[in-house]
Amino acid sequence: MDYASSLLGLLPGARRTPGLKDLLARVADYLPAGEVERIREAAEFGTSAHHGQKRLSGEPYIAHPVAAAAILADLRLDADTIIAAILHDVIEDTPTPKGQLAARFGADVAEIVDGVTKLDQIKFKNREEAQAESFRKMLLAMVRDLRVILVKLADRTHNMRTIGAMAVTRRRAIARETLDIYAPIAERLGLYSIKLELEDLGFKALYPHRYQVLEHALRRARGNQKEFLKKIEQQLNAALMKAAIPARVLTREKHLFSIYRKMRRKRALLSEIVDVYGIRIVVDTPDTCYRALGAVHSVFKPMPGRFKDYIAIPRVNGYQSLHTTLFGPNGVPIEAQIRTADMDRVAEAGIAAHWKYKAGGHADVTQQERTREWLSNLVSLQEAGSSEEFLESVKVDLFPDKVYVFTPKGQILRLPSGSTVVDFAYAVHTDIGNRCVAAKVDRRLTPLRTVLRNGQTVEIITAKGASPNPTWVNFVATAKARSAIRHYLKGLRRSEAIALGSRLLTQALAESSLMLEDVPPATVRAVLGELGLGDLDELYEKIGLGERLAPLVARRLQPGATGPASGAALAPLAIAGTEGLLVSYARCCFPIPYDPIFAFLSVGRGVVIHRDNCVNVEDYRKHPENWLPVSWQVTPERLFSSEIRVYVHNRTGVLAAAAAAIASTETNIDHVSIDEQDGDTAVLTFQLRVHDRRHLARIVRVIRRMPDVTRVSRSLAAHPRGEPFEEDGAAYGDSEGEGGG
Fold this sequence. Notes:
With 741 residues, the chain is of the alpha+beta class. The protein folds into 5 domains: 3-206, Hypothetical protein af1432, CATH 1.10.3210; 215-354, Beta Polymerase, domain 2 (2-Layer Sandwich), CATH 3.30.460; 369-482, Beta-grasp domain (Ubiquitin-like (UB roll), Roll), CATH 3.10.20; 486-586 and 603-623, no CATH class; 640-732, ACT domain (Alpha-Beta Plaits).
């Protein structure tokens, strides 16, 4: 009787517990006897803790954690990881405290188990928030110990293998979560064997009919394909032997989900997906990989533009291999991968390959360092406003990196596909991103929103005192950049809210000939207590954000105040256009200086400026307590957005002529759109940057002189055809009569 079998006799009910005998046999194959004994004790402890619990399939609950541990044993992981897998549901599903696990099996095991434990004890607003918060906790636990995610992935893999016992709705929800989150994480960590299984199982559970149809079609085509691949394998083996290159040539079959995803992406039928099978060539050294590549290309010609060298530039998850696509017999494309045995091991096991138990040896830490670098960024993502936002931010970074760009010193940075210059700046350092003002791509100045391509060299130009632009959030691709921008703006927004709130309260108190300094401190403290606020800065912030109304607060602060303010007329608040984030200009009517305006206090947004004839004002009139009188006090350097509609005869070149006319007034065009009303008439909508109504009037006068222009109006939500321009320049202080809108 071998050692594993003898241990089974020591565990009550061992043979009745599915998978336990197999697990102990697997770990005994590579772990010393003392570690196997610890695993046996953990199985005994878990069996006792889960006593009486059953899965939906009817089998004892302990079968699930043991099966998850067996998945990790196949990756030859250390004893603590195997034990944590066996006990991963003990804290969640039984009364066992974390301290008991730490005392019995060590602090590492307890921390790993705690990392994968769901947050059932906390009450969330909805299931989505609970799921996202659980995911946040798990990822942050990964920062402390990468083995947390290995246990979680094994747990999810076995759950997917046995998902058939669940109700259809629950099954589909878990399958979608697996495809959206866990399979990409497995890929990010290089765990391709687990990633592929999760994808196929998720596909089968989410789209069972599509899975069956595709599987049946592939099974029918498999016979001819195997003969086809056998012939290719023989030709490649002959070429490698002739070049004296020792190698193993393996055929592989693409997984069902990969084929399905490609069919959807290319909108193609299965018969049009020709690269269902591929070739893998495993050699001894990296140098031999390149020699083997030459031998392969001597047999089958390579397809241009389809060669990738992941040996010189590994993927972020540590994956290394040469990829080439060949023109096979009859022109059929063949995907070929060439790698060493070590690269092949990392390709299958990824980060787990570096956690393998190695008695007396030291694992290569390169992949661990890369993974920890990615995970460490998760800490900065805590600035995200909610668990759901955190989850969405992490999703962005889960998918494989496909853009490799260089710093001016030649350092390679890996960024997600679609990354911009701003993403690059934040990838270098958060301070570089915050102070970024311009950039050079391949030595040429380029806009900050430019999307980067492989092989480009990027130089970031910074300036003291520069700060992130709020609009960057709309185009950055990486979670790190988005989080850093929001974190900076959050602090900036608070300081601006405090300043605006102070102005509004001072203005409201002035209507009663009162200053805040005149209010007794005891009264201020009492009002702050009634409002549940800690200090005056917090009160100012609430007022600036529109969450408290300054006239009502001023009424409370007045001596002998007994109720809300009576609505006394306030002096207009001066708007200079430089107030920052807490004073915004409505995009429905585009107010500009010298327009008659009023302001609406919007909760969370602060002061929103509208033109007084805006259609949306009608909705706001239902809440007069939120109105605020405002007046213009404009600095000449400030530019404002305005929008005009130009009705023209639809002639060739009319758009270019109108744009040239606008440019002649030294005006920038932010955006332009064309709406063809009929064959002869079109409407050109220009979004411009102007100083005030007089500036806009000059632009309109120039455009009206064009022979093809029939009408010009300002865009206004209240009027489908816009607001007509009237030749009444005096209304804007323009003695020459340059009518504005």
